[in-house]
């Protein structure tokens, strides 16, 4: 079902019947969708408040770690991922949606690592040129342990070829791992 049909049906469902007096409802701003792949490939609309968009993006993005379910639909074809892990100083750079999806999928599958945003650690800001900057702070987990903390900065842009759809342009993740207790 197209987003416009969902939006239209939503408003039809909430309209007052003709025989009842019409109660004034605040008008909602047009929605904006994130490129969120779902099993039925529907795209869901969300209000264009930067913090709401950031929260929704994080819910979808971090939900794709467990179980790993990243797809290229969430990313522009030319997106970039920069992953910096300290204190080892390891820096990885990945370009292209397929490479980014492959690396993000490896984090929980092979590296046995999950990221969890902190409460209050998500912020969104619409930049003057139309990009949505999303900053996330949270913890890094391995089974049974919190092994560090992270800061993630993303830039999302509206896809001009898919109406009301946001996609990831780039992701920078900085992980600070705690010293190991095993030496």
Helices and strands, with pairings:
Elements: H1 3-13, E1 32-34, E2 45-46, H2 50-63, E3 75-86, E4 90-95, H3 97-109, E5 114-126, E6 132-142, E7 145-158, E8 165-177
Parallel strand pairs: 1-8, 3-8
Antiparallel strand pairs: 1-2, 3-4, 5-6, 6-7, 7-8
Organism: Salpingoeca rosetta (strain ATCC 50818 / BSB-021)
Biased composition (Basic residues): 8-25
InterPro entries: NTF2-like_dom_sf, UPF_C3orf38
Low-pLDDT parts are: 1-33, 36-46
Per CATH, the class reads Alpha Beta
User: What is the helix content?
Assistant: 10-25%
SSE order, one letter for each helix or strand: HEEHEEHEEEE
> What structural class should be given to the helix and strand makeup?
alpha+beta
How many helical stretches?
3
Kindly report the CATH topology. Nuclear Transport Factor 2, Chain: A
Tally of separate domains: 1
What does the radius of gyration come to? 19 Å
**Which whole number gives the mean pLDDT?**
79
CATH architecture: Roll
Q: For the report, how would you describe the main beta sheet?
A: 8 strands, mixed
Shape: globular
Mind explaining what this structure looks like?
With 183 residues, the protein is an alpha+beta fold. It has one domain: Nuclear Transport Factor 2, Chain: A (Roll). It is built from three helices and eight strands. Strands 1, 2, 3, 4, 5, 6, 7 and 8 form an eight-stranded mixed beta sheet that branches. A hairpin with a 5-residue loop joins strand 5 (114-126) and strand 6. 21% of the residues are buried.
